[in-house]
């Protein structure tokens, strides 16, 4: 059987360190992948004069699977988010952000297990129609929600719930005020929910959802929502389990997927062997599940769970005193 080829984008800042750690973990787990490396972000701008070179897009297109470290988008005019660019280019319409409590993280909660599924290509976040008047006193942007986009993401959420043995899907919206865009999303969500009577369906206004996530997060199982709300809620969920260092993300489309660390590139600690690689290792676990390699995914998850729970060579953000390489070695030993 031909080896699965993975496009690897090390990224900026701490990206190369935590991606390197993750590759070691995948190899030790016996995944038998082949890797083809590509640049994006500031590294690509320096090397190729472009944040997302055509060669990188071509490699993702060829291999259909990518593992990506954090990227830096320069602040200022003329630079659009690289992540938004990749999502639109490959029509990666579903953003899947699971958060799971790990004992030993000193997080505020102990039994969180929530998947946030976010529409990834439409809505306010996609940056359509952004204009600022010449005098700088008037700014506008446009939110576009389509029936097709809403139906696709809500269906994806219910299918994920069934596949993962989940019991409940909560559609999060602001249809009380944004009656057109959020209203359409909610209407379609209700229609889709009716097709899945075996799953409990609830709906919640986004501001109430934020409060409920802080006060009683255990009530949530799968959350499905629009692009901007999902961006905010998924980070809130990460805060429940110890921060962005513990939160992976998958961007999934029809036949193409990019798995990533969702935190920033942390240039202040780049190259200092301090970063916690957990987020991108968890993203690699998502990638393995996507590829139907659940046994390998489970092995890596068990190893990482044990390292964090026992506090064996954990990084500073987990209350330890060790660095990337020590933490990675502790995971490798368990594998």
Automatic annotation (TrEMBL):
InterPro entries with a match to the protein in the record: IsoCit/isopropylmalate_DH_CS, IsoPropMal-DH-like_dom
GO molecular function list: isocitrate dehydrogenase (NAD+) activity; magnesium ion binding; NAD binding
Keyword terms, alphabetized: Oxidoreductase
Alphabetized PROSITE patterns for the sequence: IDH_IMDH
Record keyword Oxidoreductase present: yes
Principal EC category: oxidoreductase
SUPFAM superfamilies in alphabetical order: Isocitrate/Isopropylmalate dehydrogenase-like (SSF53659)
A single BP term in Gene Ontology: isocitrate metabolic process
UniProt keyword Oxidoreductase, yes or no: yes
EC number: 1.1.1.41
Signal peptide: none
Isopropylmalate dehydrogenase-like domain: residues covered: 5-331
NCBIfam families to which the protein is assigned, alphabetical: PRK08997.1
Family stated for the protein in its record: Belongs to the isocitrate and isopropylmalate dehydrogenases family.
Protein name from the UniProt record: Isocitrate dehydrogenase
Species of origin: Cognaticolwellia beringensis
Taxonomic placement: Bacteria, Pseudomonadati, Pseudomonadota, Gammaproteobacteria, Alteromonadales
């Amino acid at each position: 059987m031909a080896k699965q080829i993975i496009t690897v984008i090390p990224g900026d800042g701490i990206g190369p360190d935590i991606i390197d750690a993750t590759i070691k973990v995948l190899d030790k787990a016996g995944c038998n992948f082949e890797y083809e490396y590509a640049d994006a972000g500031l590294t690509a701008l320096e090397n190729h004069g472009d944040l997302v070179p055509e060669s990188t897009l071509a490699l993702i297109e060829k291999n259909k699977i990518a593992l990506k470290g954090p990227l830096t988008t320069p602040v200022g005019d003329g630079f659009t988010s690289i992540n938004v660019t990749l999502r639109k280019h490959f029509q990666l319409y579903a953003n899947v952000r699971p958060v799971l409590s790990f004992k030993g993280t000193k997080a505020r909660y102990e039994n969180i297990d929530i998947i946030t599924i976010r529409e990834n290509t439409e809505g306010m976040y996609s940056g359509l129609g952004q204009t600022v008047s010449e005098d700088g006193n008037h700014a506008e942007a446009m939110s576009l929600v389509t029936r097709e986009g809403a139906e696709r993401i809500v269906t994806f959420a219910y299918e994920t719930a069934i596949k993962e043995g989940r019991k409940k899907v909560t559609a999060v919206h602001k249809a009380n005020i944004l009656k057109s865009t959020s209203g359409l999303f909610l209407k379609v969500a209700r229609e889709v929910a009716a097709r899945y009577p075996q799953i409990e369906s609830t709906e919640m206004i986004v501001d109430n959802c934020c409060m409920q996530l802080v006060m009683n997060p255990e009530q949530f199982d799968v959350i499905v929502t629009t692009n901007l709300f999902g961006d905010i809620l998924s980070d809130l969920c990460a805060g429940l389990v110890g921060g962005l260092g513990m939160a992976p993300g998958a961007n999934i489309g029809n036949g193409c997927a990019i798995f990533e660390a969702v935190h920033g590139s942390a240039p202040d600690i780049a190259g200092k062997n301090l970063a916690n690689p957990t987020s991108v290792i968890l993203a690699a676990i998502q990638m393995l599940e996507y590829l139907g390699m659940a046994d390998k995914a489970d092995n890596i998850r068990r190893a990482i769970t044990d390292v964090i729970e026992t506090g064996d060579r954990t990084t500073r953000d987990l209350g330890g005193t060790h660095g990337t390489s020590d933490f990675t070695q502790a995971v490798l030993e368990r594998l």
